[in-house]
Amino acid sequence: MGKGYHSRSPEEFREYLKQIGDKNKKTRWRQIVLLIDLVLVVLIFYIGFRALNPGSFQNRTQSDKQIVDGYPTYLSLSREEDDQFQGYFLFIENNTKSEIQVPNPHWKSEFRIQTRLGILCFQEEIQWDQRTIPAQSNGFLYISVSKNKWKELVADCRKEIFDEEASIFRSKFRSLDLGFYAQVLIHSEERTFTFQIKQKPYK
Length: 203
Fold this sequence. Notes:
By secondary structure, the chain is α+β, with helices and mostly antiparallel strands. Helices cover 29% and strands 32% of the residues. It is built from four helices and ten strands. The strands form three sheets. Strands 1-2-3-8 form a four-stranded antiparallel beta sheet. A four-stranded antiparallel beta sheet has the order 6-5-9-10. The longest helix is centred in the N-terminal third of the chain and has 43 residues, at 10-52. The chain is elongated and about 100 Å long.
């Protein structure tokens, strides 16, 4: 005869059912423990990756700081919501004892958009408004770029800026890799400085 229970009394049958129930409970607990172990392993890998790649899961809104004409300078994305324009601040730190005029009249500046593959999609010259930055203080230059101009770009550029392939069926992990690079280039007498921010696509 096959494996199984062959009862000789109701008491033995109840004992047999109890043993089956105990085995099922042990199996469920093993599954729960394995699941907890798996979650902990994934969490450890995630923490380790974040430690090695601190900027990977963040949507940074400012560029690295560089020294331009002796002044610490960086680009920052304006967070004001506007359907037609995107603003950018070029922050300049004046740590001297005298006020300064910015921009330097010898600068030539331009705004660019590049894809993740380095394809240049958009560029235009920047005409900064003249500003005075007092001694021992921070100031900024500001530009506003028309999004409508970006909507007229070729499809390969446009879809990275506006995420035209977005859908409820697309994986969120896939969307983490999307984005484009906004750049401000300053051509000074000494060299060319490139300030870059990786932006998420507009919805």
